[in-house]
Structures
1.
Amino acid sequence: MAIRSYKGIQPKIGINTYVDESAVVVGELYLGKDSSIWPCVAARGDVNYIQIGERTNIQDGSVLHVTRKSESAPEGYPLIIGNDVTIGHKAMLHGCTLGNRILVGMGAIIMDNTIVEDDVIIGGGALVPPNKKLESGYLYVGSPVKQARALTEQEHAFLKISADNYVHLKDEYLEDL
């Protein structure tokens, strides 16, 4: 697996985590307990940091990056992902903040300085432009993204189930190592 330091800063990988050998994880990145990074993920904590919570999964081909400090953004924009989050295949997350129990659909793009509150589903292929705030408890779809409707009870429950499914899958992969 390609876990690399950047300017002397090494990623910090939590206990009981899985990072696929084809993933590239660089620099200031914190991966929480029981989380997983799947094949062909690129996660670059070089010009700012990436923080990934517990029981969170980053699926195949996703790109995680950050925004450097600048005059217009003195702290830049790190990438912060909460607990029990599912990031679908080929999603792109750039300098945004995601709360807990979120599902980001396949191919979705979430851009700088966006805040996604807890308990949100973002549909596959959605584009979340910079500086948006997605409120808790809703499904968001489209390009650009729009609030579609409130989540159902089943969808709320599925957010945790999805994260739990990837914790179990990660454990199966770890058994083979």
2.
Amino acid sequence: MGSLTRPVQDGPLEDTDPKDSYLIPINIMAEPDYIEDDNPELIRPQKLINPVKNSRNHQDLHRELLMNQKRGLAPQNKPELQKVMEKRKRDQVIKQKEEEAQKKKSDLEIELLKRQQKLEQLELEKQKLQEEQENAPEFVKVKGNLRRTGQEVAQAQES
């Protein structure tokens, strides 16, 4: 196994156990030349100037943000996900309140709702009967008309 560490040996080679040895990292990078020598001919690297950080506006804004953070006045820019989650939570609370309000209906309201449901069911049944009659074959309709006329004639003769 090729590793970048080597064991430290304190004594003779025979007495050392590989399990007991300490591992230290080997330095791969070479030291730069300009650190050791004070040669004036060498050009020393300098850190590049960041124009954004050097601008007066940026410095003022950074100072203001630091002051606000020390005071505990953080900016109110929340991430979009947090805003969405808070909105969902608010909507859920409102929905729960509406459901609780519906559960607290009076006896009169409950009775009126029951009657309304019964009326709607009766209307649906009437509509189904009318649709069945409209969709019935022609001979069934004619037979029904003949029965009605026969009953009307019988009633007229009795009176």
3.
Amino acid sequence: MKNLKSYNDILPTIYDRVYVDESAVLYGEITIGDDSSIWPMVAARGDVNYISIGKRTNVQDGSVLHVTRKSNNNPLGNPLIIGDDVTIGHKAMLHGCKLGNRILVGMGAIIMDGAEVGDDVFIGAGTLVPPNKKLESGFLYVGNPMKKARPLKQVELDFLTVSAKNYVLLKDEYIEQHS
């Protein structure tokens, strides 16, 4: 794949049944788990730290994924760690943060350095999660800056897995049509 580029002689690692659109560009130390998908115009740079994307996770069109450099004030820097069954909406920006499992990141949301998102979370479209914030599992977060809005309903919790499964089916169709 021409869109998988090395940085310091490190290429992205792509596991089984992963779809990476030809217009996406991935640099450096990036790992993408089984059945995940990277859609058109995604830019991901694992250059000054690493990016880890779990299983059945989808990163939708125009999203930007990056990391924080190691420094004297932050010796480990901030890698970008994304769990399993995560749906990242169009044009989201994730920078040096940690996302648990079964999360929906709304379109245009921004999650900043050092933020940590628990499992089973909805982050509304356009929401800004400031640096180093901790988002508790099982809630909807919205706003700029984000606020905890309410607990998720069971139908919303169920949707988190449904969304991930739908994107697995869609990426399978793309792989079949483009192979």
